[in-house]
Each structure stands twice: as structure tokens, then as C-alpha cells.
UniProtKB/TrEMBL annotation:
Residues 255-279 are annotated as: Disordered. PANTHER family: PROTEIN GVPL 2 (PTHR36852:SF1). It comes from the Bacteria. Its main location: other. The lineage of its organism: Bacteria, Bacillati, Actinomycetota, Actinomycetes, Kitasatosporales. Belongs to the gas vesicle GvpF/GvpL family. It is found in: Gas vesicle. InterPro entries: GvpL/GvpF. Keywords: Gas vesicle. Residues 262-279 have a biased composition (Basic and acidic residues). This is Gas vesicle protein.
């Protein structure tokens, strides 16, 4: 275990909670301080932590940082890397991005206050992973940007222009209808095959950088010994539908099913999920 010294100008950033473990983490894993994460054990639980500067992670500056997408992305990727390393040797319960405590006593209070939930989560998640599935609706001929795209050929008449616009809208609506129907059927099928399923809000295309509009953004909890069958089922189930794209992500530590000491909000939030999926 790393020696975690208290310092008045630093806080303890908590990545995840696990059972105590003796296996070394993979070489090269680094926390937000550029060092291997420290471990604080308390009454049968263990918190993975790093020292971070209070000037960045106190409430005021932290609120400002969370509006900075570059900072948020870097922090989310490091958060995910630490949890992914933990998942190779134990069953981590990921905490919300930017969970911080004043000192080691604060970490122990965090473990005590969430003890029942942490223990239940570890028992429920041990030997399981998370797969993510997204469905996108992508029109073949999206409405052009007036600034970047070349001008469209001028319609012969106002009626021709309206007819063309109506055709574009009907095509887009049909793609959305197909994507929605596939999303409902696929989610129902995968929920039957997984131990649990969770729907997240659709991702913002501007943040994710993915083409098309996100229609389904779902996560599924799957036992490790059934993971290959689950992935195969996705590939077998998905038909080829023009304008609709399905994306499988993972496997991840089971972020979406972790819960935490704040009544279910202990999992990594959506910004962190998007950050790690852009790696």
C-alpha cells in the first residue's frame, strides 16, 4: 500500500471502493498526481485514492473545471484508467467523477456511510462486466450547413423547393422511425440476455464527435462467463438498416450498476462515460 500523507493544501481523490486485495496493480497505471494510486483500508473495505491540489478540487474551482471540456476529458480518462486497472485484480465499485475527501478520516467516513451499499454492490458485481450499446440515426443527405456546404441547385419553382424539403424531412423521419423500432427491440432482447439493463440519456453529438443522432444509449450487466455469447447475440440480432448504425462498446467495469453512498449517484457520470469512450 502506498503511504498517503495528509497535507493541508491537498485533498484525496477517491476513484473506487473494493475489498482489500494483495495483488499488485498493472505496471504503468497512474492517477491524477502522476503516481500509482494509494489504497486506504478500513473495516473490510478499501478505497483507491490520489493526492490532488485543493486549488483545483475545492468546491469553487472544481465547479469551474467541470465546465472545461478538455479538463473534464483528461480527468475522466485518468479516472477510467485507474478503475480499469483495478478491475484486472479485484471488483471495483466506481465512484462519481471528482469524488474528493479532505483527508484519510474523510475517506473512512465515506466508507462507513456507504458501507451497506458498497458491500451489496461488490457482491452483485463480482465476476460481471458492462457492455454498452448505442444506436444512431444517420440521414444519408442531412440538411446542409449554410456556411460550409456548397449551395444546392436552385429549385425551378417554389413548389419544387417545398417538395424537395418535404422529401428530405420524410426521409429523415423514416430513418428515425427505423432507429427507434430497432432500439426498442434490441433493448428488450439484450435485457433478456443480461442480468440487468440500464438506459442512459442519449449522448450529445457535439461532445461525442460521433456522426448521426444517438437514439439508444444503453448499458448491460453480463457475467464474465456469458460475455462472448452476449456479444455474439448482438451481432446476430442486428439487421442491416440503411441510415441506422449500431455500436458496441466495452467491456467496462460495471459503472452503470455500481451505485454508491449517495443513493445511486456513486457511479461515474455521463461526462466521464463519454470521455472514456473517446479514447
Amino acid at each position: 500500500m502506498n503511504d498517503v500523507r495528509e497535507h493541508e493544501h491537498e485533498l484525496l481523490y477517491v476513484y473506487a471502493v473494493t475489498r482489500p486485495f494483495a495483488t499488485a496493480l498493472p505496471d504503468g497505471v497512474r492517477g491524477l498526481d502522476g503516481k500509482p494510486p494509494g489504497l486506504i483500508e478500513h473495516r473490510g473495505l478499501c478505497a483507491a485514492v490520489s493526492r490532488v491540489p485543493a486549488e483545483d478540487f475545492n468546491a469553487g474551482p472544481l465547479r469551474a473545471h467541470l465546465e472545461d471540456l478538455d479538463w473534464l476529458g483528461r480527468t475522466a480518462r485518468t479516472h477510467e484508467a485507474v478503475i480499469a486497472a483495478l478491475a484486472t485484480v479485484t471488483c471495483p465499485v466506481p465512484l462519481r467523477l471528482a469524488t474528493v475527501c479532505r483527508d484519510e478520516n474523510g475517506v473512512r467516513r465515506l466508507l462507513d456511510s456507504g458501507r451497506a451499499r458498497f458491500v451489496r454492490a461488490i457482491e452483485r458485481l463480482d465476476g460481471r462486466i458492462e457492455w454498452g450499446v448505442k444506436v444512431y440515426a444517420q440521414a444519408q443527405q442531412p440538411f446542409p450547413s449554410r456556411e460550409l456546404d456548397p449551395p444546392e441547385p436552385k429549385a425551378a419553382t417554389g413548389r419544387d423547393y417545398l417538395r424537395r424539403r418535404l422529401g428530405e424531412r420524410q426521409s429523415r423521419d423514416e430513418i428515425w422511425r427505423r432507429a427507434g423500432a430497432l432500439s426498442r427491440a434490441l433493448h428488450a432482447e439484450l435485457c433478456d440476455r443480461a442480468e440487468a439493463g440500464r438506459l442512459h440519456r442519449p449522448q450529445n453529438a457535439r461532445l461525442s464527435g460521433e456522426p448521426g443522432e444517438n437514439v439508444l444509449n444503453a448499458a448491460y450487466l453480463v457475467p464474465l462467463d456469458r460475455s462472448e455469447d452476449f456479444v455474439a447475440a448482438i451481432r446476430d440480432f442486428i439487421p442491416h438498416i440503411e441510415g441506422v448504425r449500431v455500436e458496441l462498446t466495452g467491456p467496462w467495469a460495471p459503472y452503470s450498476f455500481a451505485g454508491g453512498p449517495d443513493d445511486g449517484h456513486g457511479q461515474v457520470d455521463q461526462a466521464s462515460r463519454e470521455g472514456r469512450e473517446e479514447q
